[in-house]
Amino acid sequence: MKVLVAGFGNVLRRDDGFGVAVVDHLQARGIPDGVELMDVGIGGIHLVQVLAGGYDGLVLLDAVEVDRPAGTVVVVDPEVDQVDHLGVMAQRDLLADMHYATPDRALMLAGAMGVLPDRRVVVGCQPADVDTYVHGLTPAVARAIEPAAEQVRRVVSDFGLPWPQPVER
């Protein structure tokens, strides 16, 4: 089994860098065989290219607006827009953006290409500030990193790939 854990976000826009911070946190504590970590940043097209390598599961990490207090961690099934009902020209127009900076757009393209795993979730965190151009998370979102990492370990284990608790170093 292969599972990709991918962190989205712009680390120069405060809490928008949440997904990348969780990937860094997980990397520092070790990952089991079968799990790959990826810092997507804002380059979702690269995520689609990596998914073409074949994965059984995908966990996306991102700052998400869920109208809850800053730092709230949520696990949600992502909605993936389907394009197969559109005509060829409409598909080309919709899929022509080569950046795919948002998870929604990247998932749409991966689905259209047939490389999107059936098992996929988003582990997200309610941000406090994604508009300030500064490196570093707000305190509430920084405190959510380990709870989000715990959700990633749980989800990957639920996918069928056991992820033991990390040993404190």
Description:
With 169 residues, this protein is α/β, with parallel strands linked by helices. Helices cover 34% and strands 18% of the residues. It has helices spanning 18-29, 44-51, 88-95, 103-113, 139-142, 145-159; strands at 3-8, 35-41, 57-63, 73-76, 119-125. A five-stranded mixed beta sheet has the order 2-1-3-5-4, with helices on both faces. The chain is globular, with a radius of gyration of 16 Å. The two termini are 28 Å apart. The relative contact order is 0.26.
The Rg value, from CA coordinates, equals: 16 Å
Structural class: alpha/beta
Please report the total strand number as a whole number: 5
Instruction: Count the DSSP helices.
Output: 6
General shape: globular
Cα(first) to Cα(last) distance is 28 Å
Average pLDDT across residues?
Answer: 89
Order of helices and strands: EHEHEEHHEHH
> What percent of residues are in strands?
15-25%
Low-confidence stretches at least 5 residues in length (pLDDT < 50)? none
The helix content, as a percent range, equals 25-40%
What strand order characterises the main sheet? Answer: 2-1-3-5-4
Biggest pleated-sheet summary: 5 strands, mixed
What is this structure, in a nutshell?
This protein is of the alpha/beta class. The protein is 34% helix and 18% strand. It has six helices and five strands; from the N terminus they run E-H-E-H-E-E-H-H-E-H-H.
Top keywords for this entry?
169 residues, alpha/beta, single chain
Secondary structure layout:
Elements: E1 3-8, H1 18-29, E2 35-41, H2 44-51, E3 57-63, E4 73-76, H3 88-95, H4 103-113, E5 119-125, H5 139-142, H6 145-159
Parallel strand pairs: 1-2, 1-3, 3-5
Antiparallel strand pairs: 4-5
Helix pairs in contact: 1-6, 2-4
